Amino acid sequence: MDLVRRALLAAAAALAATACSAAKPAEKRTPPRFRVATFNINWGNVDLSKTVRTIRDSKADLVALQETNAESERHIRTKLRGDYATIFFRGHDGRYEAERFGLLVKSPVKELKFVPPKGGIFGALILRTWLGGREVQIANLHLMPWARGGGELIAMAKEMARMEGTHATEITNIHAALWGKVPTIVLGDFNSHSGMNAPVFLKKQGFVDSFASVTEHPERHPTWRWKHGGVVWTFRLDHIFHSGEMRTVSSRIVKCDSSDHDLVTSVLEWQPQKAGAAPDRAPAAEDDRGQ
User: Fold this and answer.
1) Any idea what DSSP says for residue 257?
2) Where are the domains of the chain?
3) Are 73 and 89 in contact (CB under 8 A)?
């Protein structure tokens, strides 16, 4: 009888363990996440050590820079080559001090192209890379700045309105240059608040304003400041937009007094892929320092 009793108890215990195992919820996997940042570092090179520290502290997997020049590019390449596998700098024709772009990426780059300016003076730098294990294209832009006016609100508003047509031409040109059917992030110095032509155009194309998607009253959080005519002007001019394959987990503005702009960074994650879609696979990292 003792043997029978022990066998029954063992069977009951096994059955209970099986029931508990079946009732245990499946482990929920967190979608792959990655961090991107944009930073207009200001061509005046006020404090390059602080600029580099701000970039490094952002811990971004990809950083888009605007207003780089020969001096800042040498410094950034020297100080951050151990942090980023791929570092590229490009510009248009060198006629303007602040016309160049930089892209710092921890992943290898599949393809890169420069889009010459149309309507403005800067153009855009576009690349394809892998973030969070999936392919993505990045468009780093710097739209035409507007004149500061006479330091009065009405004059400033008129100058911003005057530049709207140029911005519309620029953003349309950059959007047309994107590779089709590739998840996309468009980021940089838009010289536009969120209600102006370029941001509105991207939203109409289905892009999400990353910072605004997780922040109440986003326009109350400026990324640019400039003292002119005895007034300190502040606007949210630096933006990160992403296509619908991604969602914003968090986004923040990192203050930095080495530039008139602050660094903006977002943590993004991939939305679940549709059933039957071929998964992206990032290649092994290579050491490509770019040009």
Assistant:
1) T
2) 33-270
3) yes
Would you give the distance in Å from CA 154 to the centre of its chain?
32
Prediction pTM value: 0.85
Asked whether the beta carbons of 213 and 203 are under 8 A apart, the reply is no
Which residue type occupies 180?
A: G
3-state secondary structure of 243: coil
Q: Is 254 left (phi over 0), alpha (psi -120 to 50) or beta?
A: beta
Residue type, 29: R
DSSP H helical ranges for the chain: 2-23, 48-58, 70-80, 153-162, 164-176, 197-204, 210-213
**For the residues 272-279, what does the mean pLDDT come to?**
64
pLDDT digits (tens, 9 = 90+) for 23-77: 455 556 677 999 999 999 999 999 999 999 999 999 999 999 999 999 999 999 9
Amino acid identity, position 142: H
| 140 three-state secondary structure | strand
Question: Which residues in 190-262 belong to E strands, given as ranges?
Answer: 208-209, 224-228, 231-235, 238-242, 246-254
Q: Decide: residue 66, CB within 10 A, 0-12 exposed, 13-18 middle, 19+ buried.
A: buried
33-270 CATH pick, 2.60.120.10, 3.60.10.10, 3.40.120.10, 2.60.40.1880: 3.60.10.10
- Angle (deg, nearest 10), helices 164-176 and 197-204: 40
